[in-house]
């Protein structure tokens, strides 16, 4: 599922993305005009919206989006905590109103709630073949035993699981997992793919991560074909 974060404070937006990225694919937008365009035409499943935005404020953005027929669930996340602001936000079409500073667990719970209202179900475990990935505690389980993944191992494997029908490029993995981190170097992906392959072998998984030459990586069951570089 895809979540749009409309927030002009880049550091805060990246913090929100870091909290949500274990469950959702997140994009960041820093101004109201672009936020309106993406919210109405970007194919997102939910949005986190600040109110004080350059270009178009959050309330105007939300009212305009709802008037155009956009039904994407929206969480307003703002420093404005007065009752009048809350009422205005909800009456303008927000599904929930949360004030800053916020608690990480509450943010996650709210996102699950507004998506559940829309009919989306967030699975606790992602499964393929004889293995499953628990999104709550980063545990990867095979037919006989389990192993706890590191954070980046989990992030990488989750992306492959969610996009199992697609080839995911190395550039996409590098961007989504390491972002602008100073540790983001080209061979990071290869190193972590190697770690994950060894753990899949340890668990006697009937699932493999294959390398599609010059394109990227894909996870599939062993009888699905494919190969490594």
Kindly list the characteristics that best describe this protein.
CheY-like_superfamily, WH-like_DNA-bd_sf, Stage 0 sporulation protein A homolog, transcription regulation, four-stranded antiparallel β-sheet, 229 residues, 8 helices, alpha/beta
Q: Quick one: overall form?
A: elongated
Largest sheet data: 5 strands, parallel
Q: What is the helical fraction, as a range of percent? A: 25-40%
Strand order of the main beta sheet, please? 2-1-3-4-5
Please, what is the average pLDDT?
86
Rounded Rg: 19 Å
Distance between the termini: 30 Å
How would you summarize the topology of this molecule?
Layout: E1 2-6, H1 10-20, E2 25-29, H2 32-41, E3 46-49, H3 58-67, E4 74-78, H4 83-91, E5 96-99, H5 104-117, E6 125-128, E7 131-134, E8 139-141, E9 146-148, H6 151-162, H7 170-178, H8 188-202, E10 207-212, E11 216-221
Parallel strand pairs: 1-2, 1-3, 3-4, 4-5
Antiparallel strand pairs: 6-7, 7-8, 8-9, 10-11
Characterization of the model:
With 229 residues, the chain is α/β, with parallel strands linked by helices. The protein has eight helices and eleven strands. A five-stranded parallel β-sheet has the order 2-1-3-4-5, sandwiched between helices. The chain has a four-stranded antiparallel β-sheet with strand order 6-7-8-9, covered by helices on one side. β6 (125-128) and β7 form a beta hairpin. α2 (32-41) packs parallel to α3 and α6 (151-162) packs across α8. Mean pLDDT is 86; it is low at 225-229.
């Amino acid at each position: 599922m895809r979540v749009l974060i409309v927030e002009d404070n880049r550091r805060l937006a990246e913090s929100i993305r870091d909290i949500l990225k274990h469950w959702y694919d997140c994009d960041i937008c820093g101004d109201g005009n672009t936020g309106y365009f993406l919210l109405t035409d970007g194919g997102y499943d939910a949005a986190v919206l600040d109110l004080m935005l350059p270009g178009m404020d959050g309330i105007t953005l939300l009212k305009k989006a709802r008037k155009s027929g956009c039904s994407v669930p929206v969480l307003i996340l703002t420093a404005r905590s007065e009752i009048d602001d809350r009422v205005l936000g909800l009456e303008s079409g927000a599904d929930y109103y949360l004030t800053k500073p916020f608690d990480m667990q509450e943010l996650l719970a709210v996102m699950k709630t507004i998506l559940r209202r829309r009919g989306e179900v967030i699975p606790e475990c992602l499964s393929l073949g004889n293995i499953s990935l628990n999104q709550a505690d980063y545990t990867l389980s095979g037919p006989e035993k389990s192993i706890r993944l590191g954070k980046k191992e989990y992030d990488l494997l989750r992306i492959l699981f969610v996009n199992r029908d697609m080839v995911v490029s190395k550039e996409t993995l590098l961007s989504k997992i390491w972002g602008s981190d100073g540790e983001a170097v080209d061979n990071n992906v290869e190193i972590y793919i190697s770690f994950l392959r060894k753990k899949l072998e340890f668990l006697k998984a009937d699932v493999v991560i294959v390398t599609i030459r010059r394109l990227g990586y894909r996870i599939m069951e062993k009888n699905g074909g494919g190969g490594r570089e």
